[in-house]
Amino acid sequence: MDRHVSLAVIGAGPAGLAAAVSAHEAGIENIVIYERDEKLGGILNQCIHNGFGLHTFKEELTGPEYATRFIDKVRELGIRCETESMVVSISPQREITVVSKRYGLRVVSADAIVLAMGCRERPRGALNIPGMRPQGIYTAGAAQKLVNCEGYVPGKEVVILGSGDIGLIMARRMTLEGAHVKVVAELMPYSGGLKRNIVQCLDDYDIPLKLSHTVVDIKGKRKLEGVTIAEVGPDGAPVPGTEEYYECDTLLLSCGLIPENELSLTAGIGINRITNGPFVDDRLETDVPGIFACGNVLHVHDLVDYVSEEAGRAGRHAADYILSGGAKKNPPNIVKVTPGQGIRYTVPVTIDLGNIEEDVHVRFRVGAVYKKVTIKLMCGDKELTSKRRTIVVPSEMEDVILRKSILEEVDGDIRVEMTGGGL
Amino acid sequence: MIRELTCIGCPMGCSLTVEVEDGKAVSVTGNTCGIGKRYAEQEIQAPTRMVTTTVLSDNGRPVPVKTMRPVPKEKIFEVVNEIKSRHATLPVSIGDILIDDAAGTGVPVIITGDADR
Ligand SMILES: Cc1cc2nc3c(=O)[nH]c(=O)nc-3n(C[C@H](O)[C@H](O)[C@H](O)COP(=O)(O)OP(=O)(O)OC[C@H]3O[C@@H](n4cnc5c(N)ncnc54)[C@H](O)[C@@H]3O)c2cc1C
Ligand code: SF4
């Protein structure tokens, strides 16, 4: 063993930074954050638009400004950050293998680990678009990095597939850089992005959004020449006769994010097939003791504020784990949390009722757009808490708080139920 | 004149129909709550937007910037073009002023990311 640390944090995006800060505040000193990039801040470095931090700082910051607040805090506390250091494997005994420019290959043992590796974009290969494989096709995030961090604008005539927020933001960004964004096509009958982004990134620049449309053909041998877009019917198949050809040199894909969990698999951590993130309990601990997860590696978040908040909790629980040597105060009393109709998943999947120390956040996403619904957390026939929502959409994460005082009265499994909205 | 808008107040995204006279909203329909009405009035009378973009630094790499406050919507391209005509001299820190008055809007443009090399 080359080295020992109390807490190893993997990834220096908003999740890793906030987890390290809160663990330090909870009394852990020997913390190291490992980051494969040369800079701290994660994906926020390329998100130069504003809209971050409204909940946390009561002002709208850009991505780099938001990241800097946490980076400054990490520096102020003297938390060690090793950049250009990529973690390549983790053992169930919490030994991590790190490859870095400076130190080469090392094995570091840790009392606890926080996974904060974020997510990546769904690449074209995972999308099954027919047609050729020419140059000029990028994920929206890759284009965002090229434009905002490298100063290189990848094309002039642009078509965007997928109306996720990154795609919408890039429609505006490319327009401001002088490109012509011809259309945004979205497979679903609703947009995957925020209304605000549709208005301020598309409508403001007269960029059409075609819902229930997809790319059915890609033309161009070496370089992209154009794409054919068609309407899709309720069965998901293209409707013959609706094809339209768009000449373009760039196709951006904004078709969803996938948590980056190759590393979690090396530690034998159980992964939820729906979120593609680890199964965690109310302490955000995975099924491998002492390994915690937060941020986009756990489940894809739409708001960075929720990432930071969740990571703060993960850091605190990791600190608890280290300080107690992994011992629980009381005998465990573990109950399940399960999603009801219309709800895709829950984070966490279990709650240890025997050891509740704080309020528990139950987070989830719905499977479709529902209007006028009531969300209830139930234990048998008993309603623990409920919340009314005028609308719930798949692109926004929902968050219901179970108060500690309520949890003290719970004696069985918890179900998240949604009623109304045509369910 | 009738204008169609989409409220950005919440994910409902109500379709608003606004009757406009002399550049002012005289009636708003389609909104579910008061936020929609206020949004429509503001959008008709004086729509404003924050502008975020990048400026090239002397080493040729982009540095992120933003307008300190929202600027009139119709000035977005003028503001972007003025920013494009500038250079940031390194090092720069968050909050540094790049332009005092962007395209005559009276709004400064500031640096939003630290860069030293
Ligand atoms: C392209 C893109 C654009 C986005 N734009 C927005 C937006 O505009 N607004 C918004 O609210 N949210 C946006 N998001 C969501 C955004 O990811 C979250 O808000 C937030 O940044 C997630 O924080 P995180 O710390 O979990 O992940 P990240 O910010 O992704 O940070 C993860 C970090 O872990 C590092 N890492 C990964 N694997 C390893 C390893 N093996 N070893 C060492 N380091 C590793 C990565 O290099 C990265 O720095 C975007 C996401 C993506 C992918
Ligand atoms: S009018 Fe009210 S309910 Fe409708 S989108 Fe605006 S804020 Fe939401």
Number of domains of chain B: 2
CATH superfamily of the largest domain in chain A: FAD/NAD(P)-binding domain
DSSP, total strands of chain B: 10
User: What fraction of the residues of chain B are assigned to beta strands by DSSP?
Assistant: 35-45%
Ligands in the model, by name, code or SMILES, are: flavin-adenine dinucleotide, iron/sulfur cluster
Overall helicity of chain A? 10-25%
Looking at how many chains there are and whether they match, the oligomeric state comes to heterodimer
Unreliable residue stretches of chain B: none
CATH class of the largest domain in chain B equals: Alpha Beta
Determine and state the CATH class of the largest domain in chain A.
Alpha Beta
Mean of residue pLDDT of chain A? Answer: 94
Number of strands of chain A: 26
What is the residue-mean pLDDT of chain B, rounded to a whole number? 93
Tell me roughly what share of residues is in helical segments of chain B: 10-25%
How would you classify the helix and strand content of chain B by structural class? alpha+beta
Describe the structure concisely.
With 423 residues, chain A is α/β, with parallel strands linked by helices.
Please tag this protein with its features.
heterodimer; A: 423 residues; alpha/beta; FAD/NAD(P)-binding domain; Immunoglobulin-like; 3 domains; seven-stranded mixed beta sheet; 26 strands; 22% helix; globular; B: 117 residues; alpha+beta; CPE0013-like fold; five-stranded mixed beta sheet; 2 helices; elongated; binds flavin-adenine dinucleotide; binds iron/sulfur cluster
Protein architecture, described:
Chain A has helices at residues 14-25, 54-57, 63-76, 140-150, 165-176, 195-202, 262-266, 304-324, 404-407, and strands at residues 3-10, 31-34, 50-52, 61-62, 80-82, 85-90, 95-100, 104-115, 119-121, 137-139, 157-161, 180-186, 209-211, 213-219, 226-231, 244-247, 250-253, 257-259, 291-293, 334-339, 350-352, 360-364, 370-379, 382-392, 398-402, 414-420. Chain A is of the alpha/beta class. Chain A has 3 domains: 1-119 and 257-327, 3-Layer(bba) Sandwich (FAD/NAD(P)-binding domain), CATH 3.50.50; 123-255, FAD/NAD(P)-binding domain, CATH 3.50.50; 331-423, Sandwich (Immunoglobulin-like), CATH 2.60.40. In chain A, strands 1, 2, 5, 6, 7, 8 and 19 form a 7-stranded mixed β-sheet that branches. Chain A has a 5-stranded parallel β-sheet with strand order 10-17-11-12-13. In chain A, a hairpin with a 4-residue loop joins strand 6 (85-90) and strand 7. The radius of gyration of chain A is 22 Å and the shape is globular. The radius of gyration of chain B is 18 Å and the shape is elongated. Chain B has helices spanning 34-45, 76-84; strands at residues 2-6, 15-21, 24-29, 48-49, 52-57, 62-67, 71-72, 87-88, 97-99, 109-111. Helix content of chain B is 18%, strand content 36%. In chain B, the strands form 3 sheets. Chain B has a 5-stranded mixed β-sheet. Chain B has a 3-stranded antiparallel β-sheet with strand order 1-2-3, with helices on one face. In chain B, strands 4-7 form a two-stranded antiparallel sheet. The A-B interface holds A 45, 48-50, 60-62, 64-65, 68, 147-151, 173, 176-177, 194-196, 198-200, 203-204, 371, 390-393, 395-396 and B 5-8, 10-13, 32, 49-54, 56, 60-62, 64, 66, 73, 76-77, 80, 94, 112-114. Bound molecules: flavin-adenine dinucleotide and iron/sulfur cluster. Iron/sulfur cluster binds at residues 7, 9-10, 12-14, 31-33, 35-36 of chain B.
